[in-house]
Protein backbone atom coordinates (compact mmCIF):
# COMPACT_ATOMS: atom_id res chain seq x y z
CA UNK A 1 0.00 0.00 0.00
CA UNK A 2 1.22 3.50 -0.90
CA UNK A 3 1.12 5.49 2.33
CA UNK A 4 2.47 8.82 1.09
CA UNK A 5 4.13 10.71 -1.74
CA UNK A 6 6.67 13.45 -0.99
CA UNK A 7 7.69 15.79 -3.82
CA UNK A 8 10.12 18.70 -3.70
CA UNK A 9 11.29 21.20 -6.33
CA UNK A 10 9.53 19.52 -9.26
CA UNK A 11 8.04 21.82 -11.92
CA UNK A 12 5.58 24.11 -10.07
CA UNK A 13 5.76 22.08 -6.86
CA UNK A 14 7.84 23.69 -4.13
CA UNK A 15 7.20 20.91 -1.62
CA UNK A 16 4.13 18.76 -1.00
CA UNK A 17 3.36 15.58 0.89
CA UNK A 18 0.21 13.54 0.29
CA UNK A 19 -1.02 10.76 2.54
CA UNK A 20 -3.27 8.12 0.98
CA UNK A 21 -5.63 5.52 2.42
CA UNK A 22 -6.34 1.96 1.34
CA UNK A 23 -9.44 2.79 -0.72
CA UNK A 24 -10.48 4.96 -3.68
CA UNK A 25 -8.40 8.16 -3.64
CA UNK A 26 -9.56 10.76 -6.17
CA UNK A 27 -7.47 13.73 -7.37
CA UNK A 28 -9.00 16.62 -9.31
CA UNK A 29 -8.01 20.14 -10.28
CA UNK A 30 -8.27 22.85 -12.88
CA UNK A 31 -6.56 22.32 -16.22
CA UNK A 32 -2.91 23.34 -15.84
CA UNK A 33 -2.94 23.02 -12.06
CA UNK A 34 -0.28 20.31 -12.16
CA UNK A 35 -2.14 16.99 -12.10
CA UNK A 36 0.33 15.54 -14.60
CA UNK A 37 3.24 16.65 -12.39
CA UNK A 38 2.03 14.32 -9.65
CA UNK A 39 2.12 11.37 -12.04
CA UNK A 40 5.51 12.58 -13.20
CA UNK A 41 6.75 12.48 -9.61
CA UNK A 42 5.58 8.88 -9.16
CA UNK A 43 7.16 7.86 -12.46
CA UNK A 44 10.33 9.73 -11.55
CA UNK A 45 10.65 7.87 -8.24
CA UNK A 46 10.11 4.54 -10.02
CA UNK A 47 12.96 5.13 -12.47
CA UNK A 48 11.01 6.61 -15.37
CA UNK A 49 12.43 9.13 -17.79
CA UNK A 50 11.99 12.75 -16.83
CA UNK A 51 13.48 15.94 -18.27
CA UNK A 52 15.95 17.81 -16.09
CA UNK A 53 14.05 20.93 -17.13
CA UNK A 54 11.41 19.74 -14.63
CA UNK A 55 13.65 20.84 -11.75
CA UNK A 56 11.95 23.89 -10.24
CA UNK A 57 13.49 27.18 -11.33
CA UNK A 58 16.03 28.38 -8.78
CA UNK A 59 16.40 24.94 -7.13
CA UNK A 60 19.51 22.74 -7.21
CA UNK A 61 17.64 19.44 -7.24
CA UNK A 62 14.26 17.71 -7.50
CA UNK A 63 13.17 14.95 -5.13
CA UNK A 64 10.39 12.35 -5.30
CA UNK A 65 9.78 9.85 -2.47
CA UNK A 66 7.22 7.06 -2.23
CA UNK A 67 6.53 5.53 1.20
CA UNK A 68 4.98 2.03 1.17
CA UNK A 69 3.71 -0.38 3.78
CA UNK A 70 4.58 -3.87 2.53
CA UNK A 71 3.48 -7.30 3.69
CA UNK A 72 3.71 -9.20 0.39
CA UNK A 73 6.36 -11.93 0.67
CA UNK A 74 7.23 -11.55 -3.03
CA UNK A 75 8.24 -7.93 -2.49
CA UNK A 76 10.16 -8.68 0.71
CA UNK A 77 11.99 -11.58 -0.98
CA UNK A 78 12.87 -9.39 -3.98
CA UNK A 79 14.30 -6.69 -1.69
CA UNK A 80 16.23 -9.36 0.21
CA UNK A 81 17.78 -10.50 -3.08
CA UNK A 82 18.83 -6.87 -3.66
CA UNK A 83 20.32 -6.79 -0.12
CA UNK A 84 17.93 -3.98 0.86
CA UNK A 85 17.15 -3.88 4.61
CA UNK A 86 13.44 -3.69 5.52
CA UNK A 87 12.24 -2.68 8.98
CA UNK A 88 8.63 -2.69 10.18
CA UNK A 89 7.46 -3.67 6.66
CA UNK A 90 8.29 -0.14 5.45
CA UNK A 91 9.76 0.60 2.03
CA UNK A 92 10.84 4.07 0.87
CA UNK A 93 11.69 4.49 -2.81
CA UNK A 94 13.28 7.84 -3.64
CA UNK A 95 15.05 9.58 -6.48
CA UNK A 96 17.03 12.81 -6.26
CA UNK A 97 17.83 14.52 -9.53
CA UNK A 98 20.24 17.39 -10.15
CA UNK A 99 21.27 18.99 -13.41
CA UNK A 100 24.21 16.61 -13.61
CA UNK A 101 23.11 13.28 -12.16
CA UNK A 102 20.30 11.22 -10.69
CA UNK A 103 20.42 8.92 -7.64
CA UNK A 104 17.79 6.32 -6.77
CA UNK A 105 17.51 4.70 -3.34
CA UNK A 106 15.42 2.02 -1.67
CA UNK A 107 15.43 2.34 2.12
CA UNK A 108 18.51 4.54 1.88
CA UNK A 109 20.53 2.09 -0.26
CA UNK A 110 21.65 3.36 -3.67
CA UNK A 111 20.18 1.13 -6.39
CA UNK A 112 20.02 1.02 -10.18
CA UNK A 113 17.01 2.21 -12.16
CA UNK A 114 16.42 -1.41 -13.19
CA UNK A 115 16.17 -2.50 -9.54
CA UNK A 116 13.75 0.35 -8.80
CA UNK A 117 11.53 -0.68 -11.72
CA UNK A 118 11.70 -4.31 -10.61
CA UNK A 119 10.50 -3.45 -7.11
CA UNK A 120 7.99 -0.87 -8.36
CA UNK A 121 6.26 -3.37 -10.65
CA UNK A 122 5.38 -5.44 -7.57
CA UNK A 123 4.00 -2.44 -5.68
CA UNK A 124 2.18 -0.32 -8.27
CA UNK A 125 0.25 -0.73 -11.50
CA UNK A 126 0.14 2.61 -13.32
CA UNK A 127 -2.24 3.38 -16.17
CA UNK A 128 -1.17 6.59 -17.88
CA UNK A 129 -3.23 8.86 -20.12
CA UNK A 130 -2.28 7.03 -23.33
CA UNK A 131 -1.63 3.51 -22.03
CA UNK A 132 -4.88 2.24 -23.56
CA UNK A 133 -3.17 2.68 -26.94
CA UNK A 134 -0.92 -0.24 -25.98
CA UNK A 135 -3.94 -2.51 -26.58
CA UNK A 136 -3.37 -1.90 -30.29
CA UNK A 137 -0.04 -3.73 -29.92
CA UNK A 138 -0.93 -7.43 -30.34
CA UNK A 139 2.13 -8.56 -28.39
CA UNK A 140 0.52 -7.02 -25.29
CA UNK A 141 -2.46 -9.37 -25.61
CA UNK A 142 -0.38 -12.47 -24.85
CA UNK A 143 1.17 -10.67 -21.86
CA UNK A 144 -2.29 -9.84 -20.49
CA UNK A 145 -3.58 -13.40 -20.98
CA UNK A 146 -0.51 -14.89 -19.28
CA UNK A 147 -0.90 -12.47 -16.40
CA UNK A 148 -4.48 -13.68 -15.98
CA UNK A 149 -3.36 -17.34 -15.88
CA UNK A 150 -0.16 -16.81 -13.91
CA UNK A 151 -1.16 -19.31 -11.23
CA UNK A 152 -2.25 -22.13 -13.60
CA UNK A 153 0.94 -21.64 -15.61
CA UNK A 154 3.07 -22.05 -12.49
CA UNK A 155 6.73 -22.40 -13.45
CA UNK A 156 6.00 -23.45 -17.04
CA UNK A 157 6.83 -19.99 -18.45
CA UNK A 158 10.18 -20.01 -16.67
CA UNK A 159 10.91 -23.53 -17.93
CA UNK A 160 9.83 -22.45 -21.40
CA UNK A 161 12.22 -19.49 -21.37
CA UNK A 162 15.13 -21.74 -20.35
CA UNK A 163 14.20 -24.32 -22.99
CA UNK A 164 14.04 -21.55 -25.61
CA UNK A 165 17.51 -20.36 -24.64
CA UNK A 166 18.85 -23.91 -25.08
CA UNK A 167 16.99 -24.34 -28.36
CA UNK A 168 18.28 -21.07 -29.80
CA UNK A 169 21.83 -21.90 -28.71
CA UNK A 170 21.88 -25.08 -30.77
CA UNK A 171 19.86 -23.58 -33.62
CA UNK A 172 22.32 -20.71 -33.88
CA UNK A 173 25.29 -23.08 -33.59
CA UNK A 174 23.94 -25.35 -36.30
CA UNK A 175 22.91 -22.58 -38.71
CA UNK A 176 25.94 -20.31 -38.26
CA UNK A 177 28.67 -22.95 -38.09
CA UNK A 178 27.60 -25.24 -40.90
CA UNK A 179 30.25 -25.26 -43.66
CA UNK A 180 31.65 -27.37 -46.49
CA UNK A 181 35.04 -29.09 -46.28
CA UNK A 182 36.89 -26.33 -48.14
CA UNK A 183 35.55 -23.69 -45.75
CA UNK A 184 36.44 -25.87 -42.79
CA UNK A 185 40.05 -26.37 -43.91
CA UNK A 186 40.46 -22.67 -44.65
CA UNK A 187 39.08 -21.76 -41.22
CA UNK A 188 41.33 -24.33 -39.51
CA UNK A 189 44.41 -22.90 -41.24
CA UNK A 190 43.60 -19.38 -40.11
CA UNK A 191 42.94 -20.43 -36.50
CA UNK A 192 46.14 -22.50 -36.41
CA UNK A 193 48.07 -19.42 -37.57
CA UNK A 194 46.55 -17.32 -34.75
CA UNK A 195 47.24 -19.96 -32.10
CA UNK A 196 50.82 -20.44 -33.31
CA UNK A 197 51.45 -16.69 -33.28
CA UNK A 198 50.31 -16.46 -29.66
CA UNK A 199 52.14 -19.64 -28.58
CA UNK A 200 55.42 -18.46 -30.11
CA UNK A 201 55.23 -15.29 -28.03
CA UNK A 202 55.34 -17.39 -24.80
CA UNK A 203 53.37 -14.80 -22.88
CA UNK A 204 53.03 -14.69 -19.11
CA UNK A 205 50.39 -12.72 -17.20
CA UNK A 206 51.85 -9.51 -15.74
CA UNK A 207 54.85 -9.58 -18.07
CA UNK A 208 53.78 -6.46 -19.95
CA UNK A 209 53.53 -4.35 -16.79
CA UNK A 210 57.07 -5.32 -15.74
CA UNK A 211 58.42 -4.67 -19.23
CA UNK A 212 56.81 -1.23 -19.31
CA UNK A 213 58.37 -0.39 -15.95
CA UNK A 214 61.80 -1.60 -17.15
CA UNK A 215 61.44 0.31 -20.41
CA UNK A 216 60.56 3.52 -18.59
CA UNK A 217 63.58 3.09 -16.33
CA UNK A 218 65.94 2.28 -19.22
CA UNK A 219 64.71 5.05 -21.50
CA UNK A 220 65.43 7.58 -18.74
CA UNK A 221 68.59 5.86 -17.45
CA UNK A 222 71.01 8.71 -18.20
CA UNK A 223 68.65 11.26 -16.63
CA UNK A 224 68.28 9.06 -13.53
CA UNK A 225 72.06 8.58 -13.12
CA UNK A 226 72.84 12.28 -13.52
CA UNK A 227 70.08 13.32 -11.13
CA UNK A 228 71.09 10.83 -8.43
CA UNK A 229 74.75 11.79 -8.72
CA UNK A 230 73.81 15.40 -8.04
CA UNK A 231 71.70 14.34 -5.04
CA UNK A 232 74.57 12.21 -3.70
CA UNK A 233 76.93 15.18 -4.01
CA UNK A 234 74.52 17.46 -2.11
CA UNK A 235 73.86 15.01 0.71
CA UNK A 236 77.26 13.28 1.07
CA UNK A 237 80.70 14.19 2.47
CA UNK A 238 82.72 14.76 -0.71
CA UNK A 239 82.22 18.51 -0.78
CA UNK A 240 82.69 21.14 1.88
CA UNK A 241 79.20 22.49 1.21
CA UNK A 242 77.47 19.07 1.23
CA UNK A 243 74.87 18.23 3.87
CA UNK A 244 76.93 15.46 5.49
CA UNK A 245 79.97 17.68 5.87
CA UNK A 246 77.88 20.54 7.29
CA UNK A 247 76.21 18.21 9.82
CA UNK A 248 79.65 17.00 10.95
CA UNK A 249 80.74 20.57 11.61
CA UNK A 250 77.54 21.27 13.52
CA UNK A 251 78.08 18.25 15.79
CA UNK A 252 81.68 19.28 16.46
CA UNK A 253 80.44 22.67 17.67
CA UNK A 254 77.86 20.99 19.93
CA UNK A 255 80.59 18.90 21.56
CA UNK A 256 82.47 22.13 22.39
CA UNK A 257 79.36 23.89 23.76
CA UNK A 258 77.48 21.24 25.74
CA UNK A 259 79.93 21.45 28.65
CA UNK A 260 78.54 24.94 29.30
CA UNK A 261 74.86 23.87 29.35
CA UNK A 262 73.68 20.25 29.92
CA UNK A 263 70.40 21.00 28.09
CA UNK A 264 72.37 21.15 24.82
CA UNK A 265 72.99 17.40 25.09
CA UNK A 266 69.40 16.70 23.99
CA UNK A 267 69.74 18.95 20.95
CA UNK A 268 73.08 17.35 20.06
CA UNK A 269 71.48 13.89 20.23
CA UNK A 270 68.71 15.03 17.87
CA UNK A 271 71.31 16.23 15.37
CA UNK A 272 73.20 12.93 15.72
CA UNK A 273 69.97 11.11 14.80
CA UNK A 274 69.63 13.29 11.72
CA UNK A 275 73.23 12.51 10.73
CA UNK A 276 72.56 8.79 11.23
CA UNK A 277 69.50 8.95 8.99
CA UNK A 278 71.48 10.84 6.36
CA UNK A 279 74.25 8.22 6.51
CA UNK A 280 71.67 5.44 6.01
CA UNK A 281 70.15 7.36 3.10
CA UNK A 282 73.51 7.87 1.39
CA UNK A 283 74.43 4.21 1.86
CA UNK A 284 71.12 3.10 0.27
CA UNK A 285 71.49 5.67 -2.50
CA UNK A 286 75.00 4.45 -3.30
CA UNK A 287 73.76 0.86 -3.34
CA UNK A 288 70.98 1.73 -5.79
CA UNK A 289 73.37 3.66 -8.03
CA UNK A 290 75.71 0.66 -8.14
CA UNK A 291 72.88 -1.38 -9.70
CA UNK A 292 72.34 1.16 -12.44
CA UNK A 293 73.76 0.36 -15.81
CA UNK A 294 72.60 0.98 -19.35
CA UNK A 295 72.99 -1.87 -21.80
CA UNK A 296 71.97 -1.01 -25.35
CA UNK A 297 71.11 -4.63 -26.17
CA UNK A 298 68.89 -5.02 -23.08
CA UNK A 299 67.09 -1.83 -24.03
CA UNK A 300 66.47 -3.01 -27.63
CA UNK A 301 65.30 -6.45 -26.40
CA UNK A 302 62.85 -4.85 -23.98
CA UNK A 303 61.57 -2.49 -26.67
CA UNK A 304 61.12 -5.32 -29.20
CA UNK A 305 59.30 -7.49 -26.65
CA UNK A 306 56.91 -4.66 -25.81
CA UNK A 307 56.26 -4.04 -29.52
CA UNK A 308 55.41 -7.72 -30.00
CA UNK A 309 53.01 -7.78 -27.05
CA UNK A 310 51.32 -4.56 -28.17
CA UNK A 311 50.82 -5.98 -31.69
CA UNK A 312 49.19 -9.06 -30.17
CA UNK A 313 47.01 -6.85 -27.96
CA UNK A 314 45.81 -4.95 -31.02
CA UNK A 315 44.76 -8.24 -32.65
CA UNK A 316 43.59 -10.47 -29.81
CA UNK A 317 42.81 -8.57 -26.60
CA UNK A 318 43.50 -5.55 -24.41
CA UNK A 319 45.60 -7.48 -21.86
CA UNK A 320 47.91 -10.49 -21.84
CA UNK A 321 45.21 -12.38 -19.96
CA UNK A 322 42.69 -11.52 -22.70
CA UNK A 323 45.11 -12.78 -25.35
CA UNK A 324 45.59 -16.09 -23.54
CA UNK A 325 41.81 -16.45 -23.11
CA UNK A 326 41.40 -15.80 -26.83
CA UNK A 327 43.96 -18.53 -27.53
CA UNK A 328 42.04 -20.98 -25.32
CA UNK A 329 38.74 -20.20 -27.10
CA UNK A 330 40.35 -20.61 -30.50
CA UNK A 331 41.82 -23.93 -29.41
CA UNK A 332 38.30 -25.13 -28.55
CA UNK A 333 37.07 -23.95 -31.95
CA UNK A 334 39.97 -25.71 -33.67
CA UNK A 335 39.21 -28.94 -31.80
CA UNK A 336 35.58 -28.64 -32.91
CA UNK A 337 36.60 -28.14 -36.53
CA UNK A 338 38.97 -31.10 -36.40
CA UNK A 339 36.12 -33.23 -35.11
CA UNK A 340 33.56 -31.41 -37.24
CA UNK A 341 31.56 -34.45 -38.30
CA UNK A 342 31.19 -35.58 -34.70
CA UNK A 343 30.32 -32.03 -33.59
CA UNK A 344 27.77 -31.63 -36.38
CA UNK A 345 26.13 -34.89 -35.41
CA UNK A 346 26.00 -33.79 -31.76
CA UNK A 347 24.61 -30.36 -32.72
CA UNK A 348 21.85 -31.98 -34.78
CA UNK A 349 20.97 -34.29 -31.91
CA UNK A 350 20.99 -31.45 -29.36
CA UNK A 351 18.90 -29.24 -31.65
CA UNK A 352 16.40 -32.03 -32.21
CA UNK A 353 16.18 -32.78 -28.48
CA UNK A 354 15.77 -29.11 -27.52
CA UNK A 355 13.13 -28.67 -30.24
CA UNK A 356 11.17 -31.60 -28.81
CA UNK A 357 11.29 -29.99 -25.36
CA UNK A 358 10.14 -26.67 -26.84
CA UNK A 359 7.31 -28.38 -28.70
CA UNK A 360 6.13 -30.22 -25.60
CA UNK A 361 6.31 -27.20 -23.28
CA UNK A 362 4.78 -24.87 -25.88
CA UNK A 363 1.95 -27.36 -26.31
CA UNK A 364 1.33 -27.51 -22.55
CA UNK A 365 1.33 -23.72 -22.24
CA UNK A 366 -0.88 -23.34 -25.32
CA UNK A 367 -3.39 -25.81 -23.87
CA UNK A 368 -3.59 -23.82 -20.63
CA UNK A 369 -3.99 -20.57 -22.56
CA UNK A 370 -6.84 -21.96 -24.67
CA UNK A 371 -8.63 -23.38 -21.64
CA UNK A 372 -8.42 -20.18 -19.62
CA UNK A 373 -8.96 -17.85 -22.59
CA UNK A 374 -12.61 -18.91 -22.48
CA UNK A 375 -12.74 -17.95 -18.79
CA UNK A 376 -11.17 -14.56 -19.48
CA UNK A 377 -13.59 -13.98 -22.36
CA UNK A 378 -16.60 -14.44 -20.06
CA UNK A 379 -15.14 -12.27 -17.32
CA UNK A 380 -14.22 -9.56 -19.82
CA UNK A 381 -17.71 -9.52 -21.32
CA UNK A 382 -19.23 -9.18 -17.85
CA UNK A 383 -16.77 -6.42 -16.94
CA UNK A 384 -17.38 -4.54 -20.21
CA UNK A 385 -21.15 -4.73 -19.71
CA UNK A 386 -20.58 -3.07 -16.34
CA UNK A 387 -18.84 -0.31 -18.31
CA UNK A 388 -21.89 0.32 -20.54
CA UNK A 389 -20.94 -1.99 -23.42
CA UNK A 390 -24.46 -3.40 -23.43
CA UNK A 391 -24.21 -6.03 -26.19
CA UNK A 392 -20.50 -6.68 -26.33
CA UNK A 393 -18.70 -9.80 -27.52
CA UNK A 394 -15.09 -10.34 -26.53
CA UNK A 395 -13.04 -13.17 -28.00
CA UNK A 396 -9.43 -14.26 -27.68
CA UNK A 397 -7.98 -15.71 -30.86
CA UNK A 398 -5.06 -18.09 -30.28
CA UNK A 399 -3.30 -19.30 -33.42
CA UNK A 400 0.09 -20.83 -34.28
CA UNK A 401 2.83 -18.23 -34.55
CA UNK A 402 4.85 -20.38 -36.93
CA UNK A 403 8.00 -20.17 -34.83
CA UNK A 404 9.18 -20.56 -31.27
CA UNK A 405 9.76 -17.66 -28.88
CA UNK A 406 10.52 -17.51 -25.16
CA UNK A 407 6.72 -17.43 -24.69
CA UNK A 408 6.06 -20.53 -26.77
CA UNK A 409 4.50 -20.73 -30.21
CA UNK A 410 1.17 -18.91 -29.76
CA UNK A 411 -0.06 -15.75 -31.44
CA UNK A 412 -2.72 -14.13 -29.23
CA UNK A 413 -5.11 -11.41 -30.36
CA UNK A 414 -8.09 -9.79 -28.66
CA UNK A 415 -11.19 -9.36 -30.83
CA UNK A 416 -14.29 -7.36 -29.94
CA UNK A 417 -17.73 -6.48 -31.24
CA UNK A 418 -19.43 -3.54 -29.54
CA UNK A 419 -22.63 -3.59 -31.58
CA UNK A 420 -25.20 -6.38 -32.10
CA UNK A 421 -24.99 -8.22 -35.42
CA UNK A 422 -21.37 -7.26 -36.07
CA UNK A 423 -18.56 -9.79 -36.28
CA UNK A 424 -15.72 -9.57 -33.79
CA UNK A 425 -12.75 -7.65 -35.18
CA UNK A 426 -9.31 -6.52 -33.98
CA UNK A 427 -9.51 -3.70 -31.44
CA UNK A 428 -7.96 -1.12 -33.76
CA UNK A 429 -10.73 -1.66 -36.34
CA UNK A 430 -13.60 -1.32 -33.89
CA UNK A 431 -12.83 0.68 -30.77
CA UNK A 432 -12.51 4.45 -30.46
CA UNK A 433 -10.11 6.08 -28.00
CA UNK A 434 -12.77 6.27 -25.30
CA UNK A 435 -13.79 2.66 -25.90
CA UNK A 436 -10.18 1.52 -25.68
CA UNK A 437 -9.92 3.27 -22.32
CA UNK A 438 -12.96 1.38 -21.05
CA UNK A 439 -11.67 -1.93 -22.43
CA UNK A 440 -8.38 -1.34 -20.63
CA UNK A 441 -10.28 -0.53 -17.43
CA UNK A 442 -12.25 -3.75 -17.91
CA UNK A 443 -8.98 -5.67 -18.20
CA UNK A 444 -7.57 -3.95 -15.11
CA UNK A 445 -10.67 -4.76 -13.08
CA UNK A 446 -10.55 -8.44 -14.08
CA UNK A 447 -6.83 -8.68 -13.35
CA UNK A 448 -7.36 -6.89 -10.03
CA UNK A 449 -9.32 -9.91 -8.85
CA UNK A 450 -6.26 -12.14 -9.15
CA UNK A 451 -3.40 -9.63 -8.94
CA UNK A 452 -1.20 -9.34 -5.90
CA UNK A 453 -0.26 -5.75 -6.81
CA UNK A 454 -1.85 -3.70 -4.00
CA UNK A 455 -2.03 -0.23 -5.61
CA UNK A 456 -3.53 0.86 -8.94
CA UNK A 457 -3.04 4.36 -10.34
CA UNK A 458 -5.24 5.72 -13.14
CA UNK A 459 -4.35 8.97 -14.88
CA UNK A 460 -7.46 10.31 -16.64
CA UNK A 461 -8.70 6.91 -17.85
CA UNK A 462 -12.05 8.67 -18.33
CA UNK A 463 -10.95 10.49 -21.50
CA UNK A 464 -13.65 10.55 -24.17
CA UNK A 465 -16.58 9.41 -22.02
CA UNK A 466 -19.57 11.11 -20.39
CA UNK A 467 -23.11 10.57 -19.18
CA UNK A 468 -24.21 7.03 -18.28
CA UNK A 469 -20.89 5.60 -19.44
CA UNK A 470 -19.06 7.92 -17.03
CA UNK A 471 -21.31 6.68 -14.21
CA UNK A 472 -20.53 3.06 -15.08
CA UNK A 473 -16.79 3.80 -15.09
CA UNK A 474 -17.18 5.46 -11.68
CA UNK A 475 -18.95 2.39 -10.33
CA UNK A 476 -16.18 0.16 -11.68
CA UNK A 477 -13.60 2.32 -9.92
CA UNK A 478 -15.50 1.97 -6.66
CA UNK A 479 -15.70 -1.79 -7.21
CA UNK A 480 -11.93 -2.07 -7.68
CA UNK A 481 -11.39 0.20 -4.67
CA UNK A 482 -13.07 -2.30 -2.36
CA UNK A 483 -10.15 -4.75 -2.75
CA UNK A 484 -7.28 -2.50 -3.87
CA UNK A 485 -5.87 0.89 -3.12
CA UNK A 486 -6.77 3.11 -6.09
CA UNK A 487 -5.43 6.56 -6.99
CA UNK A 488 -7.37 8.18 -9.82
CA UNK A 489 -6.86 11.54 -11.51
CA UNK A 490 -10.14 12.54 -13.15
CA UNK A 491 -12.13 15.42 -14.60
CA UNK A 492 -15.52 13.70 -14.40
CA UNK A 493 -17.93 14.54 -11.55
CA UNK A 494 -19.35 10.99 -11.52
CA UNK A 495 -15.93 9.51 -10.69
CA UNK A 496 -15.03 12.30 -8.25
CA UNK A 497 -18.29 11.70 -6.38
CA UNK A 498 -17.22 8.09 -5.70
CA UNK A 499 -14.17 9.23 -3.73
CA UNK A 500 -13.45 7.74 -0.34
CA UNK A 501 -10.78 10.45 -0.08
CA UNK A 502 -10.73 13.46 -2.39
CA UNK A 503 -7.67 15.66 -3.04
CA UNK A 504 -7.61 18.98 -4.85
CA UNK A 505 -4.61 19.96 -6.94
CA UNK A 506 -4.53 23.74 -7.30
CA UNK A 507 -2.17 26.37 -8.65
CA UNK A 508 -1.53 29.50 -6.58
CA UNK A 509 0.52 32.64 -7.18
CA UNK A 510 2.68 34.14 -4.45
CA UNK A 511 4.39 37.29 -5.65
CA UNK A 512 6.23 36.37 -8.83
CA UNK A 513 6.24 32.63 -8.03
CA UNK A 514 3.60 30.10 -9.05
CA UNK A 515 3.14 26.97 -6.97
CA UNK A 516 1.13 23.77 -7.15
CA UNK A 517 -0.47 22.69 -3.87
CA UNK A 518 -2.38 19.53 -2.99
CA UNK A 519 -4.80 19.24 -0.11
CA UNK A 520 -7.47 16.82 1.08
CA UNK A 521 -11.01 18.16 0.87
CA UNK A 522 -13.63 18.14 3.60
CA UNK A 523 -17.07 16.70 2.82
CA UNK A 524 -18.45 20.17 2.11
CA UNK A 525 -15.48 21.00 -0.13
CA UNK A 526 -15.93 17.70 -1.98
CA UNK A 527 -19.49 18.63 -2.87
CA UNK A 528 -18.33 22.03 -4.14
CA UNK A 529 -15.55 20.42 -6.24
CA UNK A 530 -18.00 17.92 -7.75
CA UNK A 531 -20.20 20.91 -8.56
CA UNK A 532 -17.29 22.64 -10.29
CA UNK A 533 -16.68 19.53 -12.38
CA UNK A 534 -20.36 19.44 -13.36
CA UNK A 535 -19.78 22.73 -15.18
CA UNK A 536 -21.38 26.11 -15.51
CA UNK A 537 -19.99 29.63 -15.52
CA UNK A 538 -20.70 29.88 -11.82
CA UNK A 539 -21.51 27.29 -9.19
CA UNK A 540 -25.16 27.93 -8.31
CA UNK A 541 -27.15 26.41 -5.47
CA UNK A 542 -28.89 24.19 -8.01
CA UNK A 543 -25.53 22.79 -9.12
CA UNK A 544 -24.48 22.29 -5.50
CA UNK A 545 -27.73 20.46 -4.78
CA UNK A 546 -27.12 18.20 -7.78
CA UNK A 547 -23.54 17.60 -6.64
CA UNK A 548 -24.73 16.74 -3.14
CA UNK A 549 -27.27 14.30 -4.57
CA UNK A 550 -24.57 12.71 -6.73
CA UNK A 551 -22.35 12.28 -3.66
CA UNK A 552 -25.19 10.64 -1.72
CA UNK A 553 -25.94 8.23 -4.56
CA UNK A 554 -22.24 7.38 -4.79
CA UNK A 555 -22.13 6.73 -1.06
CA UNK A 556 -25.08 4.36 -1.38
CA UNK A 557 -23.38 2.50 -4.23
CA UNK A 558 -20.15 2.12 -2.24
CA UNK A 559 -22.10 0.62 0.65
CA UNK A 560 -23.69 -1.83 -1.79
CA UNK A 561 -20.21 -2.75 -3.09
CA UNK A 562 -19.02 -3.54 0.42
CA UNK A 563 -21.96 -5.87 1.01
CA UNK A 564 -21.42 -7.86 -2.20
UniProtKB/TrEMBL annotation:
Residues 13-511 form the RecF/RecN/SMC N-terminal domain. InterPro entries: DNA_recomb/repair_RecN, P-loop_NTPase, RecF/RecN/SMC_N. GO terms for biological process: DNA recombination; DNA repair; SOS response. Keywords: ATP-binding, DNA damage, DNA repair, Nucleotide-binding. The keyword Cell inner membrane does not apply. It holds the Pfam family SMC_N. Transmembrane segments: none annotated. One of its GO terms (molecular function) is ATP binding. GO terms for cellular component: bacterial nucleoid. NCBIfam families: recN. PANTHER family: DNA REPAIR PROTEIN RECN. May be involved in recombinational repair of damaged DNA. Belongs to the RecN family. This is DNA repair protein RecN.
Amino acid sequence: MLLSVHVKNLALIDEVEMNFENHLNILTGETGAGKSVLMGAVNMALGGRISRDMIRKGADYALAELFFSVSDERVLETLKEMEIPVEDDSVIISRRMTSGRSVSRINGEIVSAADVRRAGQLLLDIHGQHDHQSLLDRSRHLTILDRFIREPLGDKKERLAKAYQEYMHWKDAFENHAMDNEQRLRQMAFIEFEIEEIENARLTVGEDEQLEADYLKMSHGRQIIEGLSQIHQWTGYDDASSAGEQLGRGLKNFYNLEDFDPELVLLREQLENIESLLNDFNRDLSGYMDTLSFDEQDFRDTEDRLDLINRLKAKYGATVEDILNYQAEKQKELDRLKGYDEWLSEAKAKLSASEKVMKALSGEVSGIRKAYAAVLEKQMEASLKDLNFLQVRFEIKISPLGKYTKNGSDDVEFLVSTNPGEDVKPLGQVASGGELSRIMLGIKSVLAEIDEIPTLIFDEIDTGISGRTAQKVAEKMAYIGRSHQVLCITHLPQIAAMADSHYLIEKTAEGERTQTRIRELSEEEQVREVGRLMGGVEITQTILDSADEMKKMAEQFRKTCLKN
